[in-house]
Amino acid sequence: EIVLTQSPGTLSLSPGERATLSCRASQSVNSRSLVWYQQKPGQAPRVLIYGASIRATGIPDRISGSGSGTDFTLSISGLEPGDSAVYYCQQYGSSPLTFGGGTKVEIK
Amino acid sequence: QVQLVQSGSELKKPGASVKVSCEASGYTFNKYAMHWVRQAPGNGPEWLGWINTDTGKPRYAPGFTGRFVFSVDTSVSTAYLQISSLKPDDTGVYYCARAGHCSGAGCQGWFDPWGQGTPVTVSS
């Protein structure tokens, strides 16, 4: 089973700043099969990025994903109050599918 | 639009069973795999497994065999999750989630969209 470790646990930034979230895998993730979700309180997760770097429909280009192998990054530039949420990575390259523990982004 | 609508919250005693439904609309139901995900209070999501909505064949993640059963009724475009012999540790929000992309080669294991979630509380 691939274990995903996300860091930092919490990120507190001001509007307009850039957030950089990390997701590290315990072993290589096949074919860049990594997805990022955003989850706001009381809501279901929403896909942001799949295939490590492909934006889902409707996701603005200030949100981007990168990485391969065991190290992946989600970047959010020009932070807005609506970006306040918990962000999860998930790998789908091998079974069982696994999620990271999440990074909470707070907007000051 | 593509939408998954789940049944309402459940309060059950230990040892009881629960059945959660997930009604799909806006797409051809049997063309996309359906996954089930659990989120315990304060925790990240945990994948339970998936069901082939065309053949009805389920696949369970390790640790979710035996008490967890996935099924579908294609006539009403609905997937079901049944959990038996409930334990307090089963408390959480249960989500159905459609595979995000499917082709002749199969479905990718990312999820879009998700249902709104069904809170299940197991308490005596």
What characteristics describe this protein?
heterodimer; A: 108 residues; mainly beta; 4-stranded antiparallel beta sheet; 0% helix; globular; B: 124 residues; 7-stranded mixed beta sheet; 13 strands; 52% strand
Polypeptide structure, described:
The complex is a heterodimer of chains A (108) and B (124). Chain A has 108 residues and is mainly β. Chain A has strands at 4-7, 10-13, 19-25, 34-39, 46-50, 54-55, 63-68, 71-76, 85-91, 98-99, 103-107. Chain A is globular and about 35 Å long. Chain B contains no helices and 13 strands. The relative contact order of chain B is 0.31. Chain A binds chain B through residues 1, 33, 35, 37, 44-47, 50, 56, 88, 90, 92, 95-102, and chain B through 35, 44-47, 59, 61-62, 95, 97, 100-101, 108-117.
Short summary of the structure?
The complex is a heterodimer of chains A (108) and B (124). Chain A has 108 residues and is mainly beta.
How far apart are the termini of chain A?
A: 37 Å
| Unreliable spans of chain B | none
Instruction: Quickly give the structural class of chain B.
Output: mainly beta
Q: In percent terms, what proportion of residues of chain A is strand?
A: over 45%
Shape summary of chain A: globular
Oligomer: heterodimer
β-strand number of chain A: 11
